[in-house]
Amino acid sequence: MNLEEIFSELLNVGCCNRCSLRLLGDKYSNFENSEQSLIDLLPVTSEDQVRTKRVRRNPCCLCLGLLEDAFLYQIMGHSCWCDIQDYDSDSFRINLNTPANICIRDRAMHLYIKQKFPDFYELQNSKEIILNMHETFKIAFKAKLEKHCGKTYDVYSGIQLWVTVHHDDYEKEVEVMQFLDPQTYKRRKSLKFMKTFAKNAVKETLGKVDDHTFLKFVKIPPSIPSSSVKLVSVDLECLPLFVTGRYCKYSRLIKQVPWDYHVSSNTESTVLPKTESDTTDTYTDFDSVNCVRNIIFDGLRRVFRLDKEKMTFCASGRDEPNMRCLGSGRPFCVKIEIPRKHLPDELFRELEETINESPDVAVFDMQLTNKGCRGSFCAFWGIGHTADAGTDLPFVRQTFNLDYLVIRRSTI
Ligand SMILES: [Zn+2]
């Protein structure tokens, strides 16, 4: 098996250096400097050959220019890099939304290699060392993008850039799918609100169609494209942060969350339905109510300068307004939307001290989590006070403007 010969063939059919390296090397190759990696991999090939060996200056027939530097410069010129500086986070990640015809071309090229160099194909696939296109993109351009924006690439970052890419021949090339799997695409065409040749559908078809059928309809090697991929948009998304902890409640006079009721300070709560004659003065201002949620929100606002309107509180268990919560406390979670601030771990102890200045509530074990808050929010907390569901349900419906309400659980 001669790697030189395979490399020469890949260039002849119109592959770029990075795609050639992706097929020839392994996933640990240096994709950032693909030319040097190819020279190291193919000692007989000189530096000039790697640089000039491509027959035509065309977009790559495999990645359609996605892995070429010109496309990276398009992304780097986007305004998203100014917007990302508004976020205090020191990391970011990139997700690619690429046209589905790249997947068809990828399969076609693999089959071409399989036919032309069967020994090499078996070796590469048995080792599972071929990197997919998206991973190659990230490995190749990560360092340059990090330098460009001054942040670190991190797959767990809450700051995500969604890069959407288009190719002019996309519609024309994916039409072959209807010959590979006629039934599926006939059904999809009849469905009004479904994209017929959606990427997931194309990938699913490519996964189940056998080589023989594929080769009947798709030309190998893939043709030389007339144009490169184009950058459509780069959208910035900031994932919510989740702060978890446990709280103890030492007062019988406060609740977990504010209620839209006037409640007496003893065990007999008085529920006052809202009527048109009520004025705002007679109703509770949710943000100023002394309750566990607001005490914790105040602490987060003071220590991390977070906007209270962007926070959602969720605690386990039901709210017992006239009972204390002692011992190891009750777990809770705060979801923070569009957090422009980074929350350093070392400030969580200061946060606990700030919240614990309240005589009514103590918190501990507060920390950031990336697992989110599972479970549903307590949407029916008010109903726990109803003595007669038949009488009170209409009131609850009216108060919360609910068209449909069912009590699924009751506690005596
Ligand atoms: Zn390429």
Task: Give a verbal description of the structure.
- Helix content is 38%, strand content 15%.
- With 412 residues, the chain is an alpha/beta fold.
- It folds into 2 domains: 195 residues, no CATH class; 138 residues, Alpha-Beta Plaits.
- Helix 15 crosses helix 16.
- The longest helix is centred in the middle third of the chain and has 17 residues.
- About 9% of the residues have low confidence.
- Pfam families: Pus10_C, Pus10_N_euk.
- Its EC number is 5.4.99.25.
- One of its GO terms (biological process) is tRNA processing.
Terminal CA distance reads: 78 Å
User: Multimeric state of these chains?
Assistant: single chain
The helix/strand order is: HHHHHHEHHHEEHHHHHEEHEEHEH
Please state the CA-atom Rg, rounded to the nearest Å: 30 Å
How would you summarize the topology of this molecule?
Blueprint: H1 3-12, H2 17-24, H3 34-41, H4 47-52, H5 69-76, H6 80-83, E1 91-97, H7 101-116, H8 118-127, H9 133-149, E2 152-153, E3 159-166, H10 170-174, H11 177-180, H12 182-190, H13 199-208, H14 211-217, E4 230-238, E5 241-249, H15 292-304, E6 311-315, E7 325-336, H16 347-355, E8 361-369, H17 389-399
Parallel strand pairs: 1-2, 1-3
Antiparallel strand pairs: 3-4, 5-7, 5-8, 6-7
Helix pairs in contact: 2-3, 7-8, 15-16
Bound molecules: zinc ion.
Zinc ion binds at residues 15-16, 18-19, 60, 62-63, 67.
